[in-house]
Amino acid sequence: MVNVGDRIRLSSTKGPDRDGVVTAVTGSLLRVRWSSEAETTLAPAPGTITVLAPTETVEETVPTKKAARKKKATEPKADSGNKATPDTPSRTNAAKRTSR
To answer: What are the structural domain ranges in the chain?
Structure first.
């Protein structure tokens, strides 16, 4: 298995072998920065990649985000008829005004 940071050699029947460093791994695709500073994304055929210098990767434990819990459906509260409207302030607003 190839990891990010590994130095690899890609063997080819069509040309010379190429050396590079793996910069990204996505599934079976590898992103490689070659010694010529060019980068290529490739899906290597079996037996074409040789890991020259593996990286010493330290696996970090990253806490995963838990899915938010769904709120249970609540029944609407009984309407007591004491809703505040723009013309009639609520009791708490009236109390705050008189206590100043």
So the answer is: 7-53
